[in-house]
## 1
Amino acid sequence: MKIFFNQMITNHIKLRFCSIILCVVSLLVIAHSMYLPAKAWISQQLIAYSWEVTQKTKEASPPWPWADTTAVAKMDIARLNKSMVLLKGTDPTTLAFSAGVMHQYSTLSSNQPFVVAGHRDTHFSFLQNVQMEDVIKLADIDGNTQVYQVESIEIIDSDKTPLLLDMGQPELLLITCYPFNAMRSGGSLRYVVKAKKLKEMLS
Amino acid sequence: MFKQTLLSKARRNREIIDYAPTYNRRNRNSKWYSPLSLLKWFLLVGLLAGCAFYVIPLNATTYNNYSTLDDVSSGQLLFESSETIKTNLKETRLYQSAILLNSAASFDINGIIASVTVTQSFLNTGDEIANGLYTFPLPENSAVNYLKIQVGNREIEGKILEKNEAKKLFNKAKASGKKASLVEQHRPNLFTNKIANIAPNEQITVTIKYVQHLDYTDGEFSLRFPMSITPRYQPNSLPYSNNNSETENTDNFSSTATHLLNEDLSISELSQFTQPNKNKISLRVNLNAGIQLASIDSPSHTLNLNNNELNGEPLKISVGNVQVPMDKDFVLQWRPKASIAPQLSLYNQTLDGEEYTLAMLLPPIHSTIDDNEQPSTTFARDITFIIDTSGSMQGDSIKQAKQSLHFALSTLTEKDSFNIIAFESLSTNLFQQTKMATSKNVAKALTFINQLSADGGTEMYQPLSNALNMQKTPLQNENAIKQILFITDGAVSNELALFKLITNTTDLPRLFTVGIGSAPNGFFMRKAAQFGQGSYTFIGNIDEVEDKMAMLLEKISRPSLTNINVQFHPLHLGNIEQYPNKIPDLYSNEPLIIAFKTTDKPSSIQLFGDLANKGWQQEVELNAAKTVDNNSGISSIWARAKIEDLLDGLVIGKPLEEVKSDVITTSLKHQVMSPYTSFIAVEKEILSADDKDKRKKELLAQKEKQASKKLASQNSLHAAVFPKTAVGWKLQFLLGLILLTLSLIWLSKLKKKNHENFL
């Protein structure tokens, strides 16, 4: 009986050890999952600062010396009290830092679309609160400002339809993944907010 | 089997024996095990349910008599139904297809270009006014240039108009209650056109024309025409009997077709009277292959070929007007005779007193037997690889790029020389000048590649100019072809400077660009490759690296003919307009098309070029016999090439207004799409007063829907790839939380038990 009791204690220590390891692993998993949102948040602060600098120098400069992207524009949505600096490029690295503008559609002009993409679970999670007729303001580094108004919100299956852009239209497209609260990433649905240009203010 | 059950029984018995003395413990254990095991089961079931939810759609997709736009596999008129289907997270509208009365298609094929005319009639058998949607799955590399729809006494005609004019017409038509429709695109290559207000029992006739660039792979041309209609609205029909006769017939044919000069083929008529309800299509094919053929057949339908060599015109084949059932796509394939040298063929069309000529240069076709002799006839190459290692390449992109390079190095032979330039903000060369691809040098290169990592900015000018002026190793052959393979995600801002750099280089190497990642700057890379007389390859997915790189490297490792020049006879033909201006090299598997416009008709055209070991030239006479009728699409191919060339002018800084007006003139004259023109279909008014009132009311109701409709057309719309826009941290976070709770429960239980034990 005594031997059995001892055995139980060693068993018990083993079990306890396992459970502590499990506990530590789970904490690590949580920490790892928080890494990207945290990075997204911190980079926002850095980018916001670099935007201020850019405003003064009027020259595109990377937010940190080794960055492969520059700030292109600042987006404001007054109703949601949301403002965000947009970076150039929609590659994974850039999107981890902020919402990005597609290279080909990254100039604020009166006859070209402007296409922005962002992660649905970090920077662009607020897109689910954007409503029809919301007003979105874009300002680029040269001080040009354009005001857009949301005219349609669509959910598109990217496997079936390519992203169709009318090259002659000065529209603003905000793209993120859908559904917003999906657990998995890599789905084919995209949430596309389209806004038409209201007016142009050049300075 | 029996043994096993015995064994397991024994085991179970043993268990009982083993555990019998510790009954007390087990009993106690069960107290604190049960909630945990319950949780375990709960999790397992939840996990399974979750998987099932993602894998199995909530609703099956088969609906009788209904289909979605994804099912369209031939020209069809669809009526919108009120029903939709829901699979998880998606909702798709269902359509009902109209009865097809008759269909006809005619193909005018000149070399690699087919001009296709499709006419179909439908009937609205419903008892209500319906809104229809005409759909046609266009083949790849094709563009619609004509559309006409006849609905009762209304007529809708599609035309290419200048954009502003099209817009005006669209608005005017909308205001006056007429129907103007613009071509829309639902899924890639699905042509759709809405037709409103189709009265009961009204007949609808649709005619569309498109020009298609045919497929050419492994020495075989192939034409595919979508016509596999999913039978609907039809009583059960008899199965076809043509499947068994097919093999027989092709066998029969190949024996007679070895020296095919002119044959009259007809597609065997299946007894149409025994299957009165079956949809049939009448086909007419005019094939002007331009070269000697080794074989022609149709894997989809049975061809009856009647040898008819005495007929005067060689190399022309026509399939008469025949009726075949629409149960599968029509495929026609023909194979030119094997030839070691490139083959030239000419196609000519006269339009408004001007001569349009296409020259098709077919790469050598090796018959399978003499494949062995090829290595001796390949060019030596002096190739520079440029690889982008900037920060935006991080992750999959750099992996893809490295994999591509590895692969490229493995294809080099001892005759070749190479160098690698890696760039971000700064650029690094592997060697000072190119070096021969000895195993030692290749090993050095592999270590160099493995050390690369993605970081820093993108400065392209320096590495590109470096590569364009790369010194050739003295060990390399004088005549080695200079090539550049440029792998990047194309995040460029100084496009213009780069284009100028390329166009201003004398003795320009062939430039091949490879775009990697979700959104490379396709425009820059396509144009750069074009100016560099190379080609652009897009790799969007890491799974495609091997296939696409293999294809590209296979291609560039064996150019068939280089330094191609044209000579017209007689020498003076007035104004000659030729596209492309600079004739690129000829590669295997890619016939080269050169389009000319001349004031007078040349009597013959001669092409010169360099093979790997000797010069090459061929002269082809352009006699009257080869002139084809106006339906050939030759002038529209020329016009497309011209528009492309004019638009390139913008890239190197020509004034916009000048280019725009030139493009519009060409586009309108030849009815070819361009960025400054729109394809618009406007209804001609032929309504009675009564009808007018009735229709106006209906139209008002629909106005809401139409108001938001955009002025868009196939070509001014630009299709891009959606970027990936989710991190997916929530799943991991949730997993972490579940694990944490589990471990905490466990821990607390252990403590409790410990406590009990010591008590």
## 2
Amino acid sequence: MRLTPSGLAVPGPSRRSLLRGVGGAALLAGAGIPLLSACGGSGTSSDPKTVSLGSNASDAVPKKAFESVYATFKKQSGITVDVNTKDHNTFQEQINSYLQGTPDDVFNWFAGYRMQFFAAKKLATPIDDVWAKIGDNFPEAMKKLSKGEDGKYYFVPLTTYPWAIFYRKSVFQQHGYKVPATWDELVALCKQMKKDGLVPIAFGDKDAWPAMGTFDQINFRLNGYDFHVELMGGKAAWTDAKVKAVFDHWAELLPYHQDGFMGRTWQDAAQGLVSKKAGMYLLGSFVAQQFTNKADLDDLDFFPFPEINSAYGQDTVEAPTDGFMVSKAPKNHDGVVKLLEYLGSPEAEQSYLKVDPSVVAASSKADTSSYSPLQKKAFDMISGAKTLTQFMDRDSRPDFTSTVMQPGLQKFLQNPKGVDGLLSSIERQKKQIFASS
Amino acid sequence: MTTDMTTKTPEAAAVPPPGADSASKRAQQGHRRLLTRRDRITLALMAGVPTVLHVALVWVTALASILLAFTTWDGIGFDSIKWVGLDNFQQLFNDNPQFWPAVQHNVIWFVALILVPTPLGLFLAIQLDKKIRFSRVYQTAFFLPVVISMACIGFVWQLVYNPDTGLINSLIGANKPGHYIDWIGDPDLNLWAVLVAASWRHTGYMMILYLAGLKSVDPSLREASALDGANEWQTFKNVIFPTLRPTNTVVLVVTIIEALRAFDLVFVFNKGAQGTELLSILVTNNIIGESSRIGYGSAIAVVLLVISLAVIIPYLVATFRKERRS
């Protein structure tokens, strides 16, 4: 997932060999055309005792955590889960051709628009039968995230994590800062931090996605969840005065962001918080991965993005959720249902979280007694939210966010005064992309 | 290859050993028998397999992407391909804020490579050609960047340019708030920063090409010009450089190709963020990934193809014309 990345997307083998010669340029385009059967799954037999599963959990910790989940499932049901793990980014880039070829029965995926897209393309199987059993385990907001546009369930959530403003308790104590509850307080706090020689807000946008997180927060605080969803879904116009207001707010905060952010990765920006040179950092809770020292980690805390518009308060939380979907023609349907029923249970989440404590359970019934204080706070914040968003590139068309919004937001960050031209350019491109299919 | 075989062998067989009539007759029959069925199958395979591969991997894909450039397609099912005529190109030329900068950067890339690393490579080659001590060591050192993959070069230079912990900013103290020099992110700087890395590699490449060219210069030419009393610069300008003409053509073509296919270095460096957009990166961004815009990306690829053709065709025409004359 682009959200808990190691930051470095290593490109495939050098394109040198591809680009040699006259036809090279065109060949490059040709190489992108999905070869329908090229990236198929392992395609195991229709053995009733196995379910195949395509996994994007290529990082060591999640991989181990999933293994323990499937081992427990095998003990309970006698069904083996045949896992076919692919590199995280590769899995995501090949998902189109993967799902059209011979995919595994079940595959890892993200909730929200990105799930609905494949559901609408009939590349996934509805799983209302599973939800009849596991429905009680999840809060209303999670249910909403698991449904396709046709109202059927297509997704079983497993884990989630929140985006919020992270800070060091000791730094706030030392300077006598208070957690800001409103926009004005946030701006005042930034001013004070600058006076005290701190970098008010750590920031790194080299990978182009962190800025989308800031936009999301300001937008749903200022304009509310419904407008945010409309905007992401391509229905509301980017030239709307409401969107302009988001950028105006952002521009007000921009002078307090860390310098030189265009060339900095989120990992490097997080070091500012680790070394206490920066006061705050708006990011997902995976920022904790950069806190390798236990004492530093215990000192880390967060607060939800302050209220901007009292009509919406702090009712929305950005909580990207990971889970499972069923491919279009699973070979072992009964086994798949059993597996998903298990994955939707609090037990499965607990056995996952035992190994990977950087996220929290999506189910409201999961046992929270073993959570760290940070996890507990994240869990409470998410289960207390009225509405959940996923993240700009999960709530909208990925082609729109990656080819229009990422460069667009970077342009804004470098030239906050050119918003009007930028927004009309975004709107024109949005219309073209959303009209194309 | 195949024509070589068929023309050469009968020729060899057609020359009869002197004074052996019967042998020459047998050779005549052998000429007919030279292409047995097995030979023909072998030939068909040797010529056929590469042809099929070439047609399938180069021509079919190239034509497919040209056709796709006039459609929209999200890559899911062939029935979702929709014909849209010139829409993609219209959107590309009028509404894509990254397209014209990308074209411009590709051109800058070419000009910069011709102006800086190429003369530098020539200079190094001339120095190394003078049979100085440790010549081999220098050659290896200068050529090493060419052997390293572009992606690795990107990583290495990223460490040099990193705004917080990078070599340059640490040395000149430009990593404090208010003094930042953002080599990777600043759109006025990053293209030049990345071009330094590209030139670093390209210099070695050019050096080897020129060194090979210089080795083939006839030493008697130097002697003659020395006897005529020409100094080193005059010898180079009036004698050596003109004889390097074939090398210069190769250098020009290589540099054009390098400029058009520039991709990996920038992709690793900052993924083609503002200031370093390139056509190849736009193609990749639009085509690779989920719910991809294959039609739109193909349109960009076609633009790249047209630019390549515009450069390559005059070169090929000139070369063939010269060959025919000689």
